[in-house]
Fold this sequence. Notes:
alpha/beta; 304 residues
Amino acid sequence: xxxxxxxxxxxxxxxxxxxxxxxxxxxxxxxxxxxxxxxxxxxxxxxxxxxxxxxxxxxxxxxxxxxxxxxxxxxxxxxxxxxxxxxxxxxxxxxxxxxxxxxxxxxxxxxxxxxxxxxxxxxxxxxxxxxxxxxxxxxxxxxxxxxxxxxxxxxxxxxxxxxxxxxxxxxxxxxxxxxxxxxxxxxxxxxxxxxxxxxxxxxxxxxxxxxxxxxxxxxxxxxxxxxxxxxxxxxxxxxxxxxxxxxxxxxxxxxxxxxxxxxxxxxxxxxxxxxxxxxxxxxxxxxxxxxxxxxxxxxxxxxx
Length: 304
């Protein structure tokens, strides 16, 4: 029986499809889907309307302006989608900034296509939603058994961390920053991951969208560990944009800065993608927060 024809419009969905052994069913992807490497050969079905080369504050302005006017941040190549004739389109309804929204897609499908693909929309908010999202995709692609085994192994890695961190009384205060200008703390699954990794999360609430925050509040709470993982940025871009904070007079007085415990993480590839590599992201956090207990060899982070 031939597999389904699938287009993924979200990097985390693409990673799930490959992780559960169904990469051969993908026929199209979003412009942001870049892992694993073999996905690069698939037709690109979306494009961003935002200038991502602009500084952080300008990207923020563009996004807010378009959302205020109820304008999508993405263009969809319907000519490609008509040609590819997918049975399933994977997207999300968690964040209008992260990918083509379910509502936009549903409305456009009726207008643009002479067939009706099934739209599967994920809305992860907490760390545990990773497992249910993987099963949702697996059920749609008829590969439930493979997904169960993948989930079992990934859960085992999470359990290994919890076993070591659960008894800890020494839990450093940790601030995870998801945007630099203006400042935004990491929400959704990030606060839980900090706690699982043996830290005490200072900003952001588990299961809720990432909150804006004031620089004065960060200075006031003065975290022992400071981790920058801006949405959509790799480490080099984060380092480049960080000058907006490093040049502030209070920067050198921060406890994390004085102790050499400021870290840059690849938010784009790891922490911002609620796919299988959230487990890798958890291991990165555990290694940062408790290097005396963990020595994972992940790339995707470095000390400032």
